[in-house]
Amino acid sequence: MLDKEILDKVNNYIKNSYPSMLKTGYDNLDSMLSNIDKGSLITVGGRPAMGTTTFMLGVMCNLLKQNKKCLYFSLDNSKEQIVLRLISLISEVDTYILRHREYLEQNHFDKMDSAIKELSELPLYITDDCFNIQEIKEKIEEKKPDYVFINHLQFLPFLNKKQRNDAISEAIIELKRIAKDNGCIIFIS
To answer: Who has the most CB within 10 Å: 12, 106, 133, 157?
Structure first.
């Protein structure tokens, strides 16, 4: 028999709560994720160099613009590389142009200045120095974000290739627990 406290909690949720739909900026994805609650873990998959990092940064930018506190773990790029990509996304100045100064024009500088100002006002934390699940957990507990993005989970050091799949599975289970314990939504790729 179900516990009365659980039934009362669910009944109260149904009658009094108006869950806010996740707004990633991608309508089809928002529709699919409409029932996602805090404590969820979302996996973003794709082949190497197919845009998973850009996609996750795009989702994060859209959440940041809604004043959602985000924590981004980069396991393969430096903070500076991630910020450069964010400036490119927000300013809509292609990263190729940003990296090749001879193509930069005054309107690019104006857009980048605006993007930098916008970035400085967003509730965003980027870390590139966490190398295991315990460090990730501690950073999440410290920053208390609404959303967490962990890019390239497979770059965490795992024991050896034979045990790698088991270690990744354990890491995913632990991240789900961390999301639930901290009331955040975690995106991993």
So the answer is: 133
